[in-house]
Amino acid sequence: MSLDASEVKKIAHLARLAISEEDVPEYARNLSDILNLVEQMNAVDTSGVTPMAHPLDMNQRLRPDAVSEENQREHLQAHAPATEAGLFLVPKVIE
């Protein structure tokens, strides 16, 4: 599938993108290449392929879900201009 200049301009208009007239042929070629790749990928028979959540068969390295820092609320609130009941008080910005 290849796009012509008028289709590229229409896509740019719908996407609210401003592209210069001299860049239209390059966009048309790049978008056509992308659509051709999608056509090639759609032509592949994947009926026997098990869906995967990740392309690599690896376990994620995760750290243990444990507290690693001590509570510094009182130290941090000592520098705040206003606090109340353990909370930072900030000026109202929305009426």
From TrEMBL:
Xref: Pfam families: GatC
UniProt entry tagged with the keyword Nucleotide-binding: yes
Role according to the record: Allows the formation of correctly charged Asn-tRNA(Asn) or Gln-tRNA(Gln) through the transamidation of misacylated Asp-tRNA(Asn) or Glu-tRNA(Gln) in organisms which lack either or both of asparaginyl-tRNA or glutaminyl-tRNA synthetases. The reaction takes place in the presence of glutamine and ATP through an activated phospho-Asp-tRNA(Asn) or phospho-Glu-tRNA(Gln).
Sequence similarity: Belongs to the GatC family.
HAMAP family: GatC
Reaction(s) catalysed by this chain's protein: L-aspartyl-tRNA(Asn) + L-glutamine + ATP + H2O = L-asparaginyl-tRNA(Asn) + L-glutamate + ADP + phosphate + 2 H(+); L-glutamyl-tRNA(Gln) + L-glutamine + ATP + H2O = L-glutaminyl-tRNA(Gln) + L-glutamate + ADP + phosphate + H(+)
BP GO terms, sorted: glutaminyl-tRNAGln biosynthesis via transamidation; regulation of translational fidelity; translation
UniProt keyword Protein biosynthesis, yes or no: yes
Gene name as annotated: gatC
Provenance organism: Solemya pervernicosa gill symbiont
Keywords: ATP-binding, Ligase, Nucleotide-binding, Protein biosynthesis, Transferase
Single GO molecular function: transferase activity
Protein name (database record): Aspartyl/glutamyl-tRNA(Asn/Gln) amidotransferase subunit C
